[in-house]
Here is the input.
Amino acid sequence: MDEDTENVTHVPNLLQIYPMEPDEYNTPHNVPIIIDNGCTTYRFGFSNASDPYTIPNIYSRYRERKHNLQIALFGDNVEVESGAKTQSKTAWEGDILINFDAMENALDYAFCKLGLNTNSVLHPVVISERLCTPMYSRSVLSELLFEGYNVPRAAFAIDALMSFYYNTPNQPKRDGIVVSFNSASTSVLPVLNGKGILANSKRMAWGANQASEYIMKLVQMKYPYFPTRVTPQQSAWMLRTFCEFSPNYLETLRELGTPEGMRRHNRIIQFPFVAPEEKTQEELARQAERKKEAGRRLQEMAIAKRKEKVRFTYSTLPLRIRFALERRLC
Here is the structure.
């Protein structure tokens, strides 16, 4: 029992709302703005900052009914309004950037959060992109940056290669294989002498979205009568928290074939649960009386409906049949 209790992991509160307060703007104009334009997570900040800002890359535009106003929400704020949540969308379709209305709102959010108070963006902008990004997406995004925000310079770079360069700063010979797990795809890029060999790179249509959806389907199939609905955010959290790579796949399968190995890999996830309140005898008696009263009202309504049906049926009968029925009743 103690061993099972130690393996229990509670699902955290995945919805965290932060107010959008602009920063104090005192950054020199030669410091670039770095934007990691991910399908699921949107990261941005100045290049000299220690940590970037992180927010879900989701956007919604809806009409608020009380004041009849058109409101645009971005990031975690979309989860607050149910009307906005049903109309939410992202700038991506799979791994392709196609919704530039949402992309413009994402850029507005980043520039406002960084505190830019000038008529145009005076900083160079570096934006990450996926492997094999279509030229159309890059050209429209470049047009948005130069004509919409008047940025002085813009650069696009593959996110996996930038991560490889950052994590191998002092190696004299940068050779390796980069495996990039994105939301909708997985890319494999060979690097030789510090240069990515893009001609030999591969991209597979399997990513974190497909993996988390697969986990959610497995949970729904194993627990069809689960009292609460497992959300995509919770399945993505389970993917990040509990899934791991096996250094020896066949050895792991043999270990899972034994009861001891199954117990070692067993994980218990506690979803949010509100225990029902215990009622007193008086409350139970009042509840039973209300049920009886509701049952009596339903019986009276059923009797009245039957009488009305008999009256209607009798009124639609021919006269000769009605006379015959009245003679028999007499």
